[in-house]
Amino acid sequence: MYVNVLIETRVKSNEMTFTYHVPLELSKNLIGKRVLVPFGKRTVEAFVLEYTDFDNTYEVKDIIKVVDNDPVLNEELIDLGKFMSNKYLCPLISCYQVMLPKALKANAKNNNQVKSLTYVKLNNDVSTSNIKIKSQLEIVNLLKENKEVLKSQIKSKSSLKKLIENDIVKEFKREVYRNVEVYSNHMNITLTKDQISVSNRIKQSLGLEKTMLIYGVTGSGKTEVYIDVVKEVIKNNKSAIILVPEISLTPQITSRFKGVFKERIAILHSSLSDGERYDEYRRISRGEVNVVIGARSAIFAPLQNLGIIIIDEEHSESYKQENNPRYNTLDIAFKRSKTHNCPVVLASATPTIESYARAKKGYYDYLELNKRINQMPLPKTSIIDMKKEVRNGNRTFSGELIQRIEDRLNKKEQVMLLLNRRGYSNYLMCTNCGYVFKCPNCDITLTFHKTSGMVRCHYCGYAEVKKDVCPSCKKNSISQIGSGTEKIEEEIKKEFNGVKVARMDADTTSKKGSHYQIINDFNEGKYDVLVGTQMIAKGLNFPNVTLVGVINADQSLNIPNFRSSELTFSLLNQVIGRSGRANKKGEAIIQTFNPDHYSIVCAANHDYVGFFNHEMFLRKKLNYPPYCFIILVKISSKDFECGIKEAKKASAFLRKNLTDATIVLGPSMANVLRINNNYNFQVILKYKKEEKLYVSLKELIKIYEGNSKIKIELDFNPINL
């Protein structure tokens, strides 16, 4: 008997499999399991993909050992990996590795992540009548009453040891799951007429391969609809996946689901420990849960009999994986929908332009929740022209924002402030000679973090202690330019005596449980003001927040990306929606140097349709999605000259091999030319239909296969260009 196995090799071929002989004693049920095999001079782990016939024309080595008792990849996941590899032209092994928790990946350093506890119980075949020692009798009586007890709970270790040696007591291990802390928040909710209508429409689609888009304004009660639909799914003996874009959203939505579905929920996201993720994955594999809630990678949860996939805040960039395999979560959801004949529900107050266009064309079913569940109006929003404020000496906070914050603090209400940049200042510059502190590995300035006293690169992680003397002119004239969330936190504390400020960004949420702690503390009123990056903009519900301030709405507008207006509109609309979600009216203030920009004006007016129409007009003129598809071909090298030379060759190859229906742009330098000492170039392909596309791209990949000086990567429909 022979099998084809998949091994992680330096050769990045899409489907590099190898054939091995299976000894008779190891031959049962190998598909989807990991095995140890000899590979050259090494012994490596591999995934068994299939049994195969073999013609004995060359010598085949034996499998050494089967690693797993149960398959780590079921039949659907094996097929899904092949789908991803073919669609994104990436190595098959990378597709399987991204699906699995660390302990179940091939070549995991610690395969056995099982947590077990030691218990003791009486040996029923042995008499206890001869026991006279008091401490031993106490143990025996305890075990008679409880049948089995944790070994650690027995006080007299020496007496227990004697009982075990005499075979009166047996000790044994039992596997236990690590406890993923999920708080329960059960609220009796009566659905509104609109919610019932949307929920019923979705329920009618259960059992069908269909995509539905819920356009629901912030505070319209989309979560209650999810819960109502999932109840019906479970009633039909099926399971559900609910995806959220940010880990920071997971505690609130899981607490709501926990209150309804109790222990039948599993959580999957990157903030779990390796052991917790391993346990949650196996609970899912064993059919012990009906509902999986998590971030992007939860789309691979090995649920059987999947009944629905819900993607909350579907507009979020985080649903696109930015390294290999560069998959889009929506593509994986659609593939699983086809496999299980179940609907995919996309939901957002700011759907992507592509999703809304498809809904309007009838490719997706369109559902709408255009009112808040409490019938409260959407926040009144003011746009502040910061050009005028700067002339009046207000550089960070406008006079109106200061006045509104003070008013809210006096009323014991809460405020949220958004600045989508962490750290204290954007960069350090010498005012004497103009020297700017930059990362030695990347073409990017270093961000100053005052809390740690360090300047850091947010691309490669390089850090050094802040210097007060310019290394170029040796003058003590270092100035801090720009603001980050740290600085906003400090200035708020200076401006308002006694104000309690929490900060939520990548720096303050790096520790386990920190997301939940900040959210819970702010929700309980322990802080007056919450300052944060985009992670505070989506999905969070704080009843006492009545004012939202956006410190600098222009940051995302200045990104060299055709999606910059869409990203700006979504971010503003979402964060404005955090205000006035309960029974108090909400307000928002947007500070900007571009007060007339359509994305900012439409966000302030809660006008998604107006923004969509304006953006579609521009996209059509410039031939951008949804009027075409885009592929980004990335070429990188540690040598600049080599990189640009090969980028030109790649561009010429694509122009020669593709039809005139495809527009080939470039090569050009990437937005950040050098990252981690690699120079990055790009070629952009725009197309609607291209019959030669995949053949040509596969040939291009093959040309550079094994070339250590050049790296070629493909990004299908990228978020960032």
Would you give an account of this structure?
The protein is α/β, with parallel strands linked by helices and 721 residues long. It has 5 domains: 103 residues, GIY-YIG endonuclease, CATH 3.40.1440; 62 residues, Winged helix-like DNA-binding domain superfamily/Winged helix DNA-binding domain (Arc Repressor Mutant, subunit A, Orthogonal Bundle), CATH 1.10.10.10; 177 residues, Rossmann fold; 182 residues, 3-Layer(aba) Sandwich (Rossmann fold); 88 residues, Ribosomal protein S10 (Alpha-Beta Plaits). It is 30% helix and 24% strand. It has a 7-stranded parallel beta sheet, with helices on both faces. A 6-stranded parallel beta sheet has the order 16-26-25-17-24-23, sandwiched between helices. Strands 2-1-4-3-5 form a 5-stranded antiparallel beta sheet, with no helix packed on it. The mean pLDDT is 92.
Structural class: alpha/beta
Q: Count of helices? A: 19
Classified by CATH, the class of the largest domain is Alpha Beta
What fraction strand? 15-25%
Could you tell me how far the N terminus lies from the C terminus, measured between alpha carbons in angstroms?
Answer: 49 Å
Q: Outline, from the CA principal axes?
A: globular
Low-confidence stretches: none
CATH architecture assignment name of the largest domain = 3-Layer(aba) Sandwich
Tell me the Rg in angstroms: 29 Å
Report the average pLDDT across residues. Answer: 92
- The fourth-level CATH homologous superfamily of the largest domain is P-loop containing nucleotide triphosphate hydrolases
- How much helix is in the residues? 25-40%
Please count the beta strands (DSSP E, at least 2 residues each): 30
Question: How many structural domains?
Answer: 5
Q: Kindly report the spatial arrangement of strands forming the biggest sheet.
A: 11-12-10-13-14-9-15
